[in-house]
Design brief:
five-stranded mixed β-barrel, 2 domains, 27% helix, disordered C terminus, 9 strands, OB fold (Dihydrolipoamide Acetyltransferase, E2P), two-stranded antiparallel ribbon, alpha+beta, 3 helices
């Protein structure tokens, strides 16, 4: 058992994706260098992370499907502390994206909100709300009222 296992949650900011060298007939795994913000940087809340292998593929897929205007994604990572370029870095082994901005999932949650609002059966409303929360919570819906934003209904 290693003593350098790390669990962090915060906001991921990618700052470099070096070019992927290609070997004959093979692709090397992507490498992503990023910062994970767990608090304000001036009090030590910015941590360097190195994402390779399957977590890098997951991160790149998430980046392709997400809304660029949504801001930094909130993630939970598990990895180990390693020495990289004369400093400590978290080598990410597992990454989970929270608060998905996947447009398909957001549309599904919006439809569930409509169903929730149309249903009067309290038990069914409770079950629908549980599904909405399990899918990441209410989506942000652009309201036609004064162009403001609102989230799903209050319980």
């Amino acid at each position: 058992m290693s003593n350098n296992i790390v669990h962090l949650s915060g906001w991921l900011e990618i700052y470099q994706i070096p070019p992927i060298p290609v070997k004959r007939g093979q692709f090397e795994s992507p490498v992503i260098q990023a910062w994970l913000y767990t608090d304000k940087p001036y009090i030590g809340g910015r941590h360097p992370v190195l994402i390779i292998g399957q977590p890098a593929h997951i991160t790149l897929q998430w980046a392709k499907e997400s809304d660029p205007q949504a801001g930094l994604p909130q993630v939970v990572v598990q990895g180990k502390l390693v020495s990289h370029e004369s400093s400590s870095t978290v080598l990410v082994k597992v990454i989970h994206f929270l608060n998905s901005y996947d447009p398909t999932l957001n549309a599904l949650r919006a439809e569930l909100i409509k169903l929730y609002e149309q249903t009067t059966d309290e038990e069914l409303r409770k079950r629908i709300w549980e599904l909405i929360e399990h899918a990441g919570g209410p989506p942000v819906i652009v309201s036609s009222k004064q162009g403001g934003e609102e989230t799903g209904p209050e319980l």
